[in-house]
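re: ur question from yesterday

yeah so i grabbed the chain u mentioned. its 167 aa long if i counted rite. heres the sequnce exactly as i have it in my notes:
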Amino acid sequence: MEDHKSNGWLVLLGIVLIVLGLIALGSAVVTSLIVIALLGWILLIAGVVELIRTFTGREQGNFALHLVSGILRIILGLLLIFSPGIGIATITILLGLYFLVIGAFRLVISFFNHPSGWGWSLFSGLLTFILGLILLTHFPVSGAIFIGIFVGLDLIFVGLSTIFLAA
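ran it thru and got these structure tokens back, copy pasting raw so excuse formatting
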């Protein structure tokens, strides 16, 4: 009886996650801005904590390193909070370049080394490379929606897997 109750909660959680994912997809730009602002707050808080630890003597090691690290986290956090568009643009460019490079490496390795499951590796490399191209060639529009789309899709897939886990 208790397993049935637990499964019901898992199904409900899965449905809530799917609905949140659909909302995130429906407002991908807003979702992107929220994610970047949350990251900014996390960095700001981490920077303040690091500075407090640095000046209270609780941070062992290089004083200057911890001081600079804390200050940079605070500056970056404030930048992301008050100018999330800059954060979105930066992350989009970095991820686009990352996907291009990783996709190219996977393609090369698949062609020349033929590792086990090389067809999947080739497919993965091609998709990753194309994603990088899409992000960079459609920039800055791609940046405004990219993070929101991936957060939305992640919520939907986690919701589905939670429901399947309950079945």
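noticed a couple things. DSSP finds six helices and no strands in the chain. also The mean pLDDT is 88.
anyway ttyl
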